[in-house]
Amino acid sequence: MKENAGFRDDFLWGGAVAAHQLEGAWREGGKGVSIADVMTAGSNESKRQITDGVQPGVYYPNHEGIDFYHRYPEDLKLMAEMGFKCFRTSIAWTRIFPNGDETSPNEEGLKFYDQLFDECLKYQIEPVITLSHFEMPYNLVTKYGGWRSRKLIDFFLNYAQTVFERYQNKVKYWMTFNEINNQANYYDPLPLLVDSGLIVQPDENIERTMYQAAHYELVASAKAVKLAHQINDDFKIGSMVAVTPIYPQTSKPADVIKAEKISQARYWFEDVQANGEYPWWLKNYQAKQNWNLDITKEDLEVLAENTVDYLGFSYYKSRCVSANPGEAPQYRYQGIKSFAPNQHLPKTEWGWEIDPEGLRIAMNWLADRYHKPQFIVENGLGAVDQVEPDGKIHDPYRIDYLKAHIEQMKLAVVEDGIDLLGYTPWGCIDLISAGTGEMSKRYGFIYVDRDDVGKGSLKRLRKDSFFWYQQVIKSNGEKLD
Ligand code: P53
């Protein structure tokens, strides 16, 4: 075996975005209404609301995004200037199948992505494409109840087949569902909607519904893996989970077992996608509930036979848990309510723990469990930026965050020998936050002049981190200062 001296020669440095958070043009080119189009703006204090269809007089930040739909040539030019080797974005399902249940696609939508991918390839930037990133057709929610319905598998595969065939000579790296495991937090309506198109009904057993919907998505994902390989042998299809290591708050065994149980509840999705089977604890748990889930023998065969080629994941933070007396033995995951403070870690302005070593921990943990190449497809710091009178943006906090994470990622590669395909920091150009709908929660190397109520010239500016990242890429991760 060759030892890893540094990042691979073909390491995919780049950046990541998602269609609904930057394209805008929500009604252009025949696009249908997506779930992102019915989400209002919010903040850390006030949650984004899901409205009943698009309501007049309400501000929906994703409708205009940062107008990437019209400005992508300018934006890709800037990314090429940074030296991007790849660019992760998603296809808006609603540009291809506006209602999701049509049999033939919308040619204008397909043409848009032809042009976008051609523009990437012009600069030798490899497109890395997510099929479903929080933006399924809203019609599939109202008409079928989202992923509650098995019918969604066929609708999704029809969409997947259309784009795999159309872009087979332009796109090699794909992912099926973005952060499919966010819905493990089924106490919060937002992840249920964005992951699975679920709108909670008053007396519904939402935990059961989540497990059923996630199962259909996992089957759809496995079938997409199969289809992709049939269409083009060279395709690489990844899963995409939000990786947040769960630490015990103390060395008390009850804290340790709780951390393990909560970790299981968040990561079983990856067990299915990468190992091809449901973990034992979950089979046991589901059987005990008498939920009578629709999980067939054929489904289980499809899952076993079509595991992913690589593990795509996001990493922003770690969490920590503390067991309460009387809570044992289930240690149910209760979303945000499960977490306890970690006194050893600083937090971002939005309260996310900053934990670079957690990335190395996560990579080792994933490597031990799944034995597949990894691709860090999101990482970054959401922060408020200030434009100086001379038009400069000094963002040393962002550079510090990314540098510390790249250092740990390098240890995971060089010391621990992990096979890492690439690194695409999130929101390489400022865009609408998924969690809060804000514009002021900025991640970019490129600043975009737009505020939380949709005002601003949309002008693009290079931040200090732009020039820093340029030299990181040029030196293949050697020059971090
Ligand atoms: P925002 C929650 C926790 C971790 C990652 O998030 C998350 C979320 C959902 O908000 O989402 C991913 O914009 C997601 C991106 C998102 C990014 O992380 O809330 O894949 O769409 O924008 C950052 O700060």
UniProtKB/TrEMBL annotation:
Keyword Hydrolase: yes
Keywords for the protein's UniProt record, in alphabetical order: Glycosidase, Hydrolase
GO cellular component: a single term: cytosol
Single GO BP term: carbohydrate catabolic process
SUPFAM superfamilies: (Trans)glycosidases
Cross-referenced Gene3D superfamilies: Glycosidases (3.20.20.80)
Membrane-crossing residue ranges in chain numbering: none
Superkingdom, natural source: Bacteria
UniProt feature coiled coil, ranges: none
Protein name: 6-phospho-beta-glucosidase
Phylogenetic lineage: Bacteria, Bacillati, Bacillota, Bacilli, Lactobacillales
Gene: pbg4_1
